[in-house]
Amino acid sequence: MDGGTAMAPDPLLADLDRWSAEFAAADAVFEALQPGARLGFLPRADADAMDGTLLVWVAAKSGMQAELRPFEGYVGTGVDIIFVPEAAALERLHGAATGAALATIRSLVREGAVIFFSMRRGRELRALGYEPLLDALGLAFLGACR
Amino acid sequence: MSMPGEKKLKHLFQPGKIAGLKTTNRIKYGACCVSNYGTRDGYITSRELARMQVIADTGCGIITNQGAYPDALGEGKAYFRQIAIYDDKFLPQFEEIAGYIRDAGAIGIQQILHCGRYGGIDLGYCIQPSVVPQTLPHFRPAKEMTKDHIRETIDQHAEAAKRSIKAGFHGTELPSFMGYLMASFNSKFTNKRTDEYGGSVENRGRFMCELIDAIKQATPEHPLVIRLNGADLMDRWGGNTEDECFELMQMAAASGVDMISVTVGWQESPESTIGRDIAPGYWNRLSKRAKELCPDVPIAFGQRLPNPVDADKALAEGVFDFWEVCRPLLADPDLVKKAREDRLEERKVCVGSLNCLSRLFRDLPYTCTINPRLGHEYEPEYAIKPAAEPKTVMVIGAGPAGMECAIAAAQRGHKVTVYDRAERIGGCLVGYAACDLANKADLMQIVRYYEVNAEKLGIEVKLETEVTPKLMRDVLHQYDAAVVAAGARIEPDLPNGGGERVLNGLDVALGRAQTGKKVVVLGANKIGLTLAETLSSEGAEVTLVEPGRRVADDVSPTWKWRHTAWIEELGIDARTETRVLAIEKAGVRVANGKGEELIKADTIIAATNRTANQELFNGLQWLVDELHMCGDAVTPRGLDQAISEGYLLGCRI
User: Is B133's CB within 8 Å of A117's CB?
Assistant: First the structure.
């Protein structure tokens, strides 16, 4: 983990053991990700302030690797998608049983407590192997049709 | 006011005024979404001209032409075949449309639609006040606008407004709803600027006020309408509150707009706005507040208010000054005429299926579930023309395909008899409507349309009459043509069809079978989902078993997310990639990636594997001169295909 220049992240966000266990439990969803695919987690307070720490999970052959990066705005984050949880949502996510985090994120996104940001176009995400993850989170169904 | 409907709906049909121009009534056709009938490079096509001829003739006092993007680069272009107005080369077709509207005695308004956050469809990026990523992967990454770019964009809008007037429109319209460019400046969700265009409400609204000012200066004698949200529905994500939306509305009023069209929501708002799951009149409070806060500017409104009677009442109560209506007129372009002639019971009703929007976001031209002619007005094959020789026509099946065929054929002069073994018109739609969590009454209005128009056209409907070989022998030579519109049945892919233990989903939907408290529904497509949802909402514990990877595979994009949301809200256990091994006394034995399991159930319902009812077609081959087939009897599909196919057959039989 490269904590070099980044601000101290939210302790729940930085509980890497917790999130690693989750990635392992949902291995089938993440194994389709191409090496180098990057998911970001950004606490809502940091997103609102346009300043803070982005927790980035990078897909590697050996599994998902974590790193922290300073966040000063969305330009140049280098990630493919970002989840922005409200503080209570992050707490709920952290407290979910191992293996239940994806279902919890899915509900939280639907409730509006987690914002899902796509940093790439849909077809680019599919090429990077995000389809199983987007399916699992119900994001494939989110259309611009209300 | 000499027509009977004008007396009944006197508020709707009273004259109005916009910027000193008189309108014949208080109905504004709103440019609710683009048609996607243009060419890829922005020209209006003959298909679009034919559609607009029909729209111009609807009888509305004000008619808004769909949004055209104002920049040559296409940063404002969001839709695959959106029309453009950045150059005089596009003018001839705009002139034609303005002419249709003027000839119809209406006020013509051209909408200038820069889609901003949703734009740049051909460019791979979009422009915004700040770089805030998309919440829907459908759209494109953002670039921040410089001040020079802002000024250039304002100039492009002013030029587009001048061009609109040159084409013959009376005025122009700026849309700031749905998350388009102006909305993205107004919203604190997408506007993170620290210069004079960002920060406070006043600063965020600066772009809007400068746009208004530029257009008013460019076209000082002509009305300018602005579309503004009463609620963005983005506040949970840090967007504007309703109070801020209304502050911005007051700023627009103070800047000199001539009408405010009140709207709701962004494309990415995480809740419904205009689907049939929203009760008619639900958003009226926003219009009422706009009237209170902006008393000197006419307010137009019509979000999820499809019924002219409700609109007339709201006008009487001062909720708005003009009823703004679009989709109900796409569903039935004769709606205003029928209202005027007091024939509203004959109208086709927009049921908020949002097929129109679903298709737009698949880059397809829009169509309407209810109105098969929409987008085909220029094709003679879709017109009701007198039959060369009247025939006696037998239609077997009173579902949507059969009834559309019967009505179209009768309108052309044929003598039509419809047979159905059920006790009422509607076919499977009756069952589907009964299970529709969104709005049961809306879908039943389609059935009502068939009942009323069958009677009006003298179509004989023989219910509780099954067409059998014996009946066919009895009526031999009585009919010149027969249409098999017998629909489809469920045949589960189980040994012995699952046996008596398994109920048929259509029987359950139509109330012909009783269910228990612990239910397994086999198949999580449209039928299975609606059954599971309604049984769950009535208190049953429901498990859905679906062999495919996803639920809702045969559901339109507009409704997929609603079904998935309902499944979660109702706590329905949806097992995907799960196959049935056996039907047992205690329940259903299934297998999936986690192994085998017995799901206990007192009721098992088959809702998958639909088979077309084609046996009659084969049986009638030598008994009638002309034999046709339409709807699910051809191959099981959905309501829009049934309606379209039945209508087309009725047009040519």
Answer: yes
Residues 6+ apart with CB under 8 A from B89: none
Closest CA to B416 of B479, B347, B487: B479
Interface of B with A (CB under 8 A): 118, 124, 131-142, 144, 192, 236-238, 265, 267-275, 354, 357-358, 361, 549-550, 552, 557-558, 560-561, 564-565, 568
The H or E element spanning position B583 is: strand B579-583
Put simply, the answer to whether A146 touches B269 (Cβ < 8 Å) is yes
CA–CA distance, B163 with B94 (Å, rounded to integer): 9
Q: How many CB atoms lie within 10 A of CB A73?
A: 14
CA dist., res. B127 & res. B144, Å (int): 6
What domains does chain A contain, in order, with CATH numbers? Answer: 16-136 (3.30.1050)
| Banded model confidence at residue A141, pLDDT cuts 50, 70, 90 | low
Question: Nearest-CA distance from B57 to chain A in Å?
Answer: 28
User: How does DSSP classify residue B381?
Assistant: G
Distance from the B557 Cα atom to the nearest Cα atom in chain A, whole angstroms: 7
Query: What is the predicted ipTM?
Result: 0.89
Report yes or no: A120 at the B interface, CB cutoff 8 Å: yes
What confidence tens digit (pLDDT) does each residue in B447-481 have? 999 999 999 999 999 999 999 888 988 888 899 99
Residue B543 · residue B523 · CB < 8 Å: no
Burial class (CB in 10 A: 0-12, 13-18, 19+), B408: buried
pLDDT at B361: 80
Contacts of B578 (CB under 8 A, 6+ apart): B545, B546, B547, B590, B591, B592
Query: Residue B142: what are its φ and ψ, rounded to 5°?
Result: -95, 150
Of the partner residues A48, A73, A142, the one whose CB lies closest to the CB of residue B561: A142
Q: B136-155, pLDDT tens digit by residue?
A: 888 899 999 999 999 999 99
Please tell me the distance in Å from B355's CA to the nearest CA on chain A: 9
Beta partners for B603? B519
Interface of A with B in 35-74 (CB under 8 A): 44, 47-48, 50, 73-74
Closest to B485 in 3D by CA, of B629, B621, B611, B617: B629
Residue type, B235: D
Domains detected in chain B: 4-360 (3.20.20.70), 384-489+611-652 (3.40.50.720), 492-608 (3.50.50.60)
Chain B residue numbers touching A44 (CB-CB < 8 A): 238
Closest chain B residue to the Cα of A144, Cα to Cα: B267
Nearest residue on chain A to B567, alpha-carbon basis: A107
Nearest CA in chain B to A120: B141
Provide the CA B87 distance to its chain's centre, in angstroms: 31
Q: Which residues, listed in sequence order, are joined to residue B171 by a DSSP beta bridge?
A: B109
Mutate to test the interface with A, among B145, B190, B268, B592 (most CBs of A within 10 A): B268
pLDDT at position A63, please?
Answer: 82
Give residue A140's pLDDT: 59
Between CA B537 and CA B50 the distance in angstroms is 45
Q: What integer pLDDT is reported at residue B303 of this predicted model? A: 92
Order the strands of the B502-504 sheet from edge to edge.
Answer: B502-504, B603-606, B518-522, B541-545, B573-575
Q: Is A45 exposed, middle or buried (0-12, 13-18, 19+ CB in 10 A)?
A: middle
Q: For residue A52, give the DSSP letter.
A: E
CB B297 within 8 A of CB B322: no
What number of helices (H) and strands (E) belong to chain A?
7, 5
The answer to whether the CB atoms of A143 and B361 lie below 8 A apart is yes
Work out the angle at residue B22's Cα, subtended by the Cα atoms of residues B18 and B24, and round it to the nearest 5 degrees: 115
With an 8 Å Cβ cutoff, is A110 touching chain B?
A: yes
d(CA B482, CA B624): 7
CA distance A73 to chain B (A): 8
